[in-house]
Every structure is written in C-alpha cells, then in structure tokens.
Amino acid sequence: MAVPEAVGLVDLALKAVSAYDRPDLTPRLTQAKTRLTDPAVRVLVVGEFKQGKSQLVNALVNATVCPVDDDIATAVPTLVRFGEDTTVTLVREEAGDERAERTPVPLEQLADHVSEGGNPGNRSGLTRAEVTLPRKLLQSGLVLVDTPGVGGLGSAHGAATMSALPTADAVLLVSDASQEYTSPEIDFLQAARKLCPNVACVVTKTDLYPHWRRIVELDEGHLRNARIEADLLPVSSALRLHAARTQDLDLIAESGFQALVSFLLRKVVSRADDLSRRSTSQDVLVTCQSLESSMRAELMSQNAPEKAGALAKDLEAARSRVDALRQRSARWQTSLNDGVADLIADIEYDLRDRLRAVSRDAEQLLEDADPADIWEQFAEWFHKQVSHAVAQNFVWTTERARWLAEQVADHFAEDIDVQLPDLRIAGGAVAGKVDALELPASENFGPGQKLFVGMRGGYGGLLMLGLASTFAGFALLNPLSIGAGLLFGAKTVRDEKKRLVQRRQADSKNAVRRHIDEVTFQVGKDSRDNLRQIQRELRDHFTVLAEELSESLKESVTAAQTAMKDDKERQKRVADLEAELERVGGLAERARSLAATVEASS
Questions:
Q1: Are 89 and 130 in contact (CB under 8 A)?
Q2: 56 shares a domain with 142
Q3: What is the C-alpha to C-alpha distance for residues 278 and 297, in angstroms, rounded to an integer?
Q4: Which domain holds residue 293?
Q5: Are 470 and 431 in contact (CB under 8 A)?
C-alpha cells in the first residue's frame, strides 16, 4: 500500500530540487513517487490441481469470485484486487504487442472463461482475468493471483508459474490435508524460494480430513529435511465462508484464516511497505547529499575565499573521476558488457545440455518400443521433462543475473557508494510458443496390407520350392511348396512390420529433435531478451547515477569559483547558505527517521 509519510517526504524533496534548480535530480524522485503510488503487492496462490486454491482466494475475500467445483479446474490466472465496484475484465496480450485487449464481462460468466470446463486448455488465448472487489483486505494493495495447477516443475503450468515468481512479492503454496507433501511439491518449493524468498505453505480442507494435524507434522518434517524455511498454515476455506455468513467468531478462529491474514498483512504487505520506506529514504538521502555538496562547497569558499581556487581544483578532479564512470571504458561498463556476453553463452550451454540429456533419454525410449504403442505416455513424459529443464534453466538464469548485477554494483561502488536497483526478472513460458509434440504420420498396415504383403512374399516361396520339387516328380502345388509359401509370407509380413516400426522410430526421433531445437531457439531468445533488458536497466541506472553525481560536482565547482569578494555580501550569503543547509539537513533527517522506523519494527 502507499505509505503516506514516504509520499509526503518525496513531495518535499521534489519541491526542494525545484527550488534549488536541480532538474537532474527530479527523475529519481519521480520514479520513487511512482513506486509509492502503485500499491500493488502481488501474492501468487499456487499448487497442484484440485488442492483448493480457488476456494482459498474466495474465502480470503469472502466472495465467490473464482469458480469452484469438483469437476472444475482453473485454466487462466485470475487477479483479484481492490476496486470501488465489482468488475471482471478479460485480458488478452499478444507477443510483441504492447497493447492489451480488455473485455469486460459479468461476474457470473467468469467461470466460462477461466475454467477448464468453459475454456479447455485456454483455447481462447487469454492472458489473465482481472477482478476488482470492494474489500478491506485488498484495500491495502494486496493482489491475489489464482493460478492454474502447476503439476510440478515438469508441467507447462508449472514452468509458466515459475517464470512469474520473480515478479511476485509472496507465494502461497496450497496443498490439501489428504496427503503429505509430494516430491514435485518440494521441488517446486525449493525452486520458488530461490526466486521469491517470501513463501508460505497453506494446508487446506482441514474440515474434511480428521488426521490433518498428522499431515501438518509430516509436512513440517519434509520442510526441515529440505531446509526450506516457510510458514505452514492449516486452514479450512469452507469453515471460513460459513463463519462469515453466520458471523460465528469461534468458527472463524477454528478455520485458521486469522493466521493466514496476519501473515499476508504483517509479512507481505508490511514488508512491502518497509521496502518502500527504505528505498524512499535512500532516494531522498541521495538527493539531499547532492544538494548539500554544492552548498557546502560554496560555503567553504565564502568562509575562506583564499582557498576557493584549491577547492575548485579538487572538486574538478573529483568530477573528472565521476565523468570517467560515464565512459564506455569504465570498469563497471566493461564488467557489465563482458558479464552479459559470458552469461548468455553459459545460459545457452546449460539449456542445450539439459535438453540434450532429455533428447538422449527420449530417443532411447523410442528405440526400445514401437512409438505407436507408447506415444500418449511418451508425449506426456517428454513434455514434463522439457518443461522441467526449461524451468531449472530459468531459475539458474535468474540467480546468475542477480549475481552479475551485484558484481557490476561492486565495481561501480569502488568509486562511488551506490545501491543496487531492484531488478524484476520476468520469464516466458514455452507453452503457446512451441507446437506440441505429435506422432508423425506413418503408413497404415492393416489386415488388407498384411494379406497383400504376405501373398507377395508367399508367392515367391511357393514358386521357388514348387519348381524345385517338380524335378523330383512332385506337382508345382504340393505340401512342401505350400508350406514354404506360408513361411515366406509370414516372414515378409514380419519384416515389413519391423521396417515400419523402424521408420516410425526414426520419424519420431526426428520429431523429438525438431521439438528440442524449437524449444532451444525460443527459450534461448527469451533468455537473451531478459539478459539484454537487465543490461539496459543496469546501464541506465548507473549512467543516471553518474550524471547526477557529475551535475552535483559541477554545481559545487561553480559555487566554489564564485566566492564573493565583498565582506557584507559574503556574510549575507553565508547566512543564507547555512539556513539552506539546515533546511536540507532537516529533510535528510526525516529520511533517516523513515528508515529508522523500519529498523525498529523489524
């Protein structure tokens, strides 16, 4: 949510830079205010299919928003945010098109668009559905995202959800109380922790399973064994909704939602507010330091005019060092360019290595069986393996990109003390960009074809042995020649079947290789685009910072060079500068106090 004291502080800083004619400092503060006035705190609700994710969202907002039924599964992500009125908007975004198609629909029709029953496999091509509700919980800026079942890391939805994690403020992993955590869920949690540190585990449907406490104990053990630090919250959405209708406080407490709401408000929304306070404090302090530097330089030159020349010389040397940071040959620029180039090569190698392993396993499976007999199971297995490889590659890409950002910041900080910008690394899912793997067309070898091939082979055997037997006085058609014809015919049919199987195997292997190549191309492009975007963000961030520092030192040099000679005017200017420094110092003190409130509350 927007932090009023932080917004007020930024407004004061904007007035200060305007009053002191420092337009170069305005973009930083404007960006800070934009962050503060966009209060969205995204919480992804993820989990396997039919675990109670949609019902959990409904219970949190006390409204039937997300479709829920035994035979309904979510097919399209649904965002639930605050609004003065209840509205539903379907959003469709095309790749490469910045404009999104937005279609309002009645709430009653939402299930027809976001569920597998009404929109199987998201054949409508929707990106998401957005729902606004007038709810106090959402008024704090909380945005709940009901996602399709992840199906583990090795599913299309799992890979898509994984790519959205870096842009989320928190993740709720939902699993019902019917069983303990499965291996895919633990794998997903471990990967999610690397991309979004604020993760909580929610055990749903405690009203349906009397042994839910035992399941919670087992889940806690799995989390400890996997070294995953996350809150584990057992809840009952059905009890929560019933308690809300009957206003039964005891049932509300029994539902477990008080702990969940407390987690969302204290550890998610409040943490986002703390981050806003910290970043705002840092931005305002940097602005104050820039303003103070020129004022102090002028004050020193006014107090000691004879030293103004030496001071201006020192400031000019400092400005030259800062200007060097803006050059393409600066160390941080070199580290950034070389690091991105190396990272692109490493990421592509990692992706190819993972997919080559999948390809080898797939070809071995196809070599050991007839593709026509196992294709349905094979295609499902293959798709999971490819999605898992892509998801793991994305996790590694994100970790390496953040490491590179820290390295560049360290090299820049060798000259100037800076703060690393907040990088939100977004990934793309392969689903929808690469055609599904399909069984290649093959020749039909039905009874008619078998009869024809058998007769063709049998005719040769019958004729060959029949002619030979005529020299012994037998007729052309005799038991020996007929038996030979049957044997030759059967062998010809077997050989033809073997040839067709080998051809299907070869065609299937080629289809696998083409699919792997397409995935490698698409994911590689997405990774390169991501890294290039990070490169641009870091380059722009540090370039702007260097320009701000250079402008501040330029103002300081100018101030030092214009020391007044007249004592009366100099004394008046000194008094003005001291008053201005006191005002700027007061602004800086408010910024430090804002950061101190965060430290005190943490």
A1: yes
A2: yes
A3: 28
A4: 1-38+275-303+565-602
A5: no
What share of residues in the chain are helix, strand, coil (percent, to 5)? 65, 10, 25
- Give one DSSP letter per residue of 363-412, joined into a string: HHHHHTS-HHHHHHHHHHHHHHHHHHHHHHHHHHHHHHHHHHHHHHHHHH
State the pairing for strand pair 142-146/78-82: antiparallel
Give the DSSP H/E element, type plus range, for residue 171. Answer: strand 170-176
Whether residue 143 sits in one domain with residue 4: no
In whole angstroms, give the CA distance from residue 21 to residue 291.
10
Residue type (1 letter), 70: D
Residues 81 and 53 in one domain: yes
Residues 112 and 118: beta-carbon distance below 8 Å:
yes
Contact 73, 155 (CB under 8 A): no
Predicted local confidence at residue 78, as pLDDT: 87
pLDDT tens across 419-467, in order?
Answer: 556 655 555 444 445 566 777 766 666 676 667 666 766 666 666 766 6
Q: Is the pLDDT of residue 323 over 70?
A: no
- Phi and psi at residue 358, to the nearest 5°: -65, -40
Q: How far apart are CA 517 and CA 434, in angstroms?
A: 10
Three-state secondary-structure class, residue 63: coil
Domain's final residue, options 223, 255, 287: 255
- Are 94 and 4 within one domain? no
Sheet of strand 142-146: strand arrangement: 100-104, 87-93, 128-133, 78-82, 142-146, 41-47, 170-176, 199-204, 231-234
Residues 149 and 244 in one domain: yes
Q: What angle do CA 324, 325, 327 make, to 5 degrees?
A: 65
> Do 45 and 113 sit in the same domain of this protein?
yes
Residue 576: alpha-carbon gap to chain centroid:
52
Q: Is residue 362 part of a domain?
A: yes
User: Among 432, 425, 383, 363, which Cα is nearest to 152's?
Assistant: 383
Cα separation, 566 vs 584, in Å, equals: 26
Q: Is 124 exposed, middle or buried (0-12, 13-18, 19+ CB in 10 A)?
A: middle
Sign, Cα dihedral of 395, 396, 401, 404: positive
**pTM of model > 0.90:** no
CA–CA separation, 77 and 74 (whole Å): 7
DSSP 201: E
| Buried-exposed string 138-174: b where 16+ CB fall within 10 A, e elsewhere | bebbbbbbbbbbbbbbbbbbbbbbbbbbbebbbbbbb
CB 93 within 8 A of CB 127: yes
DSSP string, 315-335: HHHHHHHHHHHTSTTSHHHHH
- Helix (H) or strand (E) run with residue 79 in it: strand 78-82
- Domain count along the chain: 3
260: in domain:
no
**Beta strand spans in 39-77 (E):** 41-47
Report the alpha-carbon distance of residue 552 to residue 322 in Å, rounded: 10
Q: Which residues face 382 on adjacent strands?
A: none
Task: Identify the CATH number of the domain in which residue 224 sits.
Answer: 3.40.50.300
Distance CA 593, CA 599 (A): 10
pLDDT digits (tens, 9 = 90+) for 379-431: 888 887 887 788 788 888 888 888 888 787 777 755 455 555 665 555 544 44
> In this structure, are 460 and 516 located in the same domain?
yes
